[in-house]
Design goal:
Layout lengths: L11 H10 L19 H22 L3 H23 L4 H15 L7 H12 L10 H16 L1
Length: 153
C-alpha cells in the first residue's frame, strides 16, 4: 500500500484528518477514506515514523514557536502511547492517553484557528479556491507563510 511520506505528497485533507483524529492510517494513499484499512503492528510503527518525519518537515519549513513545539511533543507522546496500546493490546494506557489529551487541550489557545478556517482566510485573501484533497501540506503552509509576510509589511 502506498503511503504519503512527506509534506510534498501529503494532501491537506489527510493532514487535517490526522490532526483531528490522531489516526495515522490517513497517511495511506487510498481512492477514498470512508473505510480505513486494518494495520499490523509493524505498519503502525512505520506510519508513526513517517508522521514524525512529516512533523519535522513542517517545523523546518514553517518555523515554530516554543509553545507550538511543546504541543507537537505532547502530540508525539500521545501518538506513541496509542501505538503502544495497539501493539501491546494494553487498554490500561487509555487512561494515560486521556490525561495527555486533556493536557494538550489545556495548552492550546482558546481561539485556535482550524485548518478549515485558515483555508477560508487563504481563499479570501488570495482570491482563489483551495481543494484540501488536491493541495499538499507544503503548498498550504507556503500560502500561510506568504500571507504572514504580506500582513507583516
Amino acid at each position: 500500500m502506498k503511503i504519503s511520506n512527506s509534506i510534498d505528497n501529503l494532501y491537506l485533507y489527510n493532514y487535517s484528518k490526522i490532526l483531528e483524529t490522531n489516526d495515522l492510517r490517513y497517511l495511506f494513499i487510498l481512492p477514498d477514506y470512508f473505510e480505513l484499512p486494518k494495520t499490523t503492528d509493524k505498519e503502525m510503527q512505520q506510519l508513526f515514523e513517517i508522521w514524525e518525519k512529516i512533523n519535522d518537515e513542517v517545523l523546518d519549513f514553517v518555523g515554530i514557536s516554543e509553545d507550538y513545539k511543546e504541543q507537537f511533543r505532547l502530540r508525539k507522546t500521545i501518538a506513541l502511547l496509542k501505538v503502544e496500546m495497539i501493539c501491546k493490546e494494553d487498554k490500561s494506557l487509555q487512561t494515560i492517553i486521556d490525561i495527555k489529551e486533556r493536557e494538550l487541550l489545556n495548552m492550546m489557545p482558546k481561539q485556535k484557528q482550524t485548518v478549515d478556517e485558515s483555508i477560508i482566510a487563504i481563499e479570501v485573501n488570495l482570491k482563489m479556491q483551495i481543494n484540501p484533497k488536491d493541495t499538499t501540506v507544503k503548498k498550504y503552509f507556503s500560502y500561510i507563510k506568504y500571507l504572514s509576510k504580506k500582513n507583516n509589511k
